[in-house]
Amino acid sequence: MSSVESSRSYVRYRVIFACMLMAVLLYLDRFCISFAEVFIKDELGLTDHQIGILLGSFFVSYALCQVPSGWFSDRFGARKMLTLYILMWSLFTALTGFATGFIMLLIFRLGFGLSQAGAYPTSANIVSKWMPLTERGFASSMVTVGGRIGGALAPVLTAFLIILFVPISESSDLKPGALLQPHQLASTFLKRVDEKQTFESEVYAQLPPADQEFLKSAAADPELPPGSAEEDKFINDLNQILQNASLYNPQEYEGMKLNQQAEQLLTINSADMTPDEKSRLNRLLFEARYYDDVRKVQGQGWRKMMMTYGVIGIFIAAIFWWIIRDYPRAHPSCSAQELELIEHGRLEEDKDHSKQIGGIPFKAIAMNKSLWLLSLSQFCTNVGWLFLVTWLPRYLDETYRVPLETRGKMVTFALAVGWFGTLSGGKVTDWLMRRISLRWSRVLPIAISRFTAMAAYLVCMLDVSPWVAVIMFSIVAFSTDFGSPAMWAFNQDIAGKHVGSVLGWGNMWGNLGAAVAPVLMIAVIGIDHHWNNAFITCAIAFLIAGVASLWVDPAQTLVVETSEEMETETPES
After folding, report:
1. 9-168+297-350 is classed in which CATH architecture?
2. Among residues 417, 389, 427, 392, which one has the least CA distance to residue 481?
């Protein structure tokens, strides 16, 4: 009986789970900065243009390092290289929490992109070696859905950590430089005093004459430089008022979306509030009334959030190293029965891992027409998709004034729908291969899903409610992810022993699209934020992606010449 039981093993599923866990961290670390960028922008005094460069810079280094990092994994082993990649990007994530200016952030983002470049090419390498040919689509979907889980968790978990690291017991005082636009704030403040609005009237009445004069001079002088001694005195006196006064008037906040923490504090009787709770509530009310003009108190938590993600990466790297081996025959727990199942239908040369590959097969890649078409599809897909993980939080904020916590839930909902797209796309890809043909099992999931995403963006141009817009964005996420397993399977079909390099090639072009997208979105949206221009741009991108994928053919395998292959014996480990 024991010999029968020992012949059974399911190591390949543990291997895919480890890759999936890695992908969760990959996207969690990648997109947490998109949700924290409003706080980073405020604290470091960055412009929208600089934020666009930072968001795009990651994809530049990420894209350009795809092929080399994929080749490193093909050549030196997926286990060693991906563990190293995880540790490297976790280090750059943690270092981001120590940034003091634009240049430091730019260096860290470029290093972060370089470190993450090998993640998916290496995972594709692992899937190609560990999964039977008929299960590649679903296995690939499990890895990519891990990324989508991380992307969907990023907004809500990032918001939770940022708030967690700024507890109510921590000072809610405004710090010097907290007034981002003194002229605009002063003008609005005095206008509301004239209108006898409760909040401003009570604050103004308690301000010393010198502070009242500061407000008048700031309102009259648009060129007044921030950080003056008069401004610092005004902030100090304002803190004294915000610590003690009862400033909430329900009528003045009708239709105004408050921070969730503010809403929770408003459920407490004013007489029962602690000084810290009263100070925090007044600070949040002040921020709500001057949203664009005041630095956010909860933004102070973004640095510790980045450091926390960096520490988590160390544990994920250890788990990955413990579970993964480069190929089934190297894993002590992989039985002969499982090995036979994995290798069934493979060519003999694809079963032999005793040799290292030579250099990157650039010539063979450049001569493959289908790979170029798929690369174009990936480029345009990322141009359309990236809106969801970079600009969607700001769109919901500026168009609908959705509070921080609700924004996190909305973005998480939209991206979470993509999980089902990835899983169903993997199943459909494998089903089409068994029922129709290899070619159409790759083409149909990609093409149809791109046309669907295009239609969803066009609906967003209508005057819709916030949740209808979120549903449309969810369709975009579902459609984008539905075609991903077919893309992975295509690369594994044509690549032979060069899966890392080939998938890295397609990912390079896809992420060059992602690098272009933030700057492109800033250009088409404009300073007045015409969001419909962004939706038209994304719809056109998905149209091109769908048309290009119609001519992809996985029968056009990579033709690697002997001079490119140059295999060498793998040293004994």
Report:
1. Up-down Bundle (1.20)
2. 417
Helices and strands in the chain: count of H runs, count of E runs:
28, 2
CA atoms within 13 A on the CB side of 556: 16
Angle at which helices 11-44 and 119-130 cross, to 10°: 170
For helices 102-116 and 78-96, give the axis angle rounded to 10 degrees. Answer: 160
Question: Any residues with CB less than 8 A from the CB of 213 and at least 6 apart, and which?
Answer: none
Q: Given the structure tokens 């916590």, which residue do they identify?
A: 405
What's residue 404's pLDDT? Answer: 67
Cα separation, 289 vs 278, in Å, equals 17
CATH topology identical between 9-168+297-350 and 359-557: yes
> Do 482 and 423 meet the contact criterion of CB atoms below 8 Å apart?
no
Beta-carbon contacts of residue 23 (< 8 Å; ≥ 6 apart): 119, 120, 123, 143, 144, 145, 146, 147, 149, 150
Sorted by where each begins, the domain ranges of the chain are 9-168+297-350, 182-294, 359-557
Give Cα separations from 400 to 31, 213, 289 (angstroms): 22, 35, 15
Handedness of CA 43, 47, 50, 54 (dihedral sign): positive
Using one digit for the tens of pLDDT, what is the confidence trace for 185-204?
999 999 999 999 999 999 99
Inter-residue contact 11 to 328 (CB < 8 Å):
yes
Element at 396 (helix H, strand E): helix 392-400
Token representation of residue 289: 């009334």
For tokens 């594709």, the residue is 124
**CATH class, 359-557 region:** mainly alpha
Nearest to 34 by CA among 521, 565, 463: 521
Cα(451)–Cα(560) distance, rounded to whole angstroms? 34
- The residue type at 153: L
Which tokens in the block code for residue 54? 């930072």
pLDDT mean over 430-447: 85
Structure-token pair, residue 334: 């992989």
Q: Under 8 Å CB-to-CB from 60, ≥6 apart: which residues?
A: 110, 113, 512, 515
* Residue 469 to residue 88: CA distance in whole angstroms: 37
- The answer to which of 12-21, 458-467, 511-520 has the lowest mean pLDDT is 511-520
Q: How far apart are CA 278 and CA 336, in angstroms?
A: 67
